Request: fold
Amino acid sequence: MKPPTHDAWARQHAGEPSVSSRGGERNNRPRNRDVEPEIARLADQSTHDLRLAWHQLHRHEPPRGLSRDLLVRALAHQLQERIYGGVGRALRRRLQTLSAELEKGAASSDSGIMLKTGTRLLRQWRGHAHTVLVRENGFEYDGQHYRSLTVIAEKITGAHWSGPRFFGLTRRAGASVDAEAGR
Reply:
């Protein structure tokens, strides 16, 4: 086993794994490169070397009690992001929004399905077709604006329903969401 090299340039040219210090360096990542040998080398490194790689990547020590296995996994994930690319900006923003809601104590009942403006939801109910148009700031049903699908579902049925569930936008165990709601 080679002695640990703490300089990123030297590690890269010595054949050791190099963990980038910042996300989004997609133009600097290697092209058509297999990441598996680098991940395998991570598993061979000492815990001390893994902690040093973490420090170089995050600019702080890894959390106390973080196991060696989790260090390897986290660093392997960073290698894969560097080579294959990380999450996109839209997903990052969505995760930040969900995180902020969670910190405020607001339980999100979002099913994870994002509806694009202009989408039409169609639901058959007791022999009548009901169409809802997704707007930028809510929904339009029967010529009126609503902020919630649940209110629309209640208006249609006369009983309390989950709006997303009524329009087929939530997943049940073992069921898939159809491309068109209400089928």
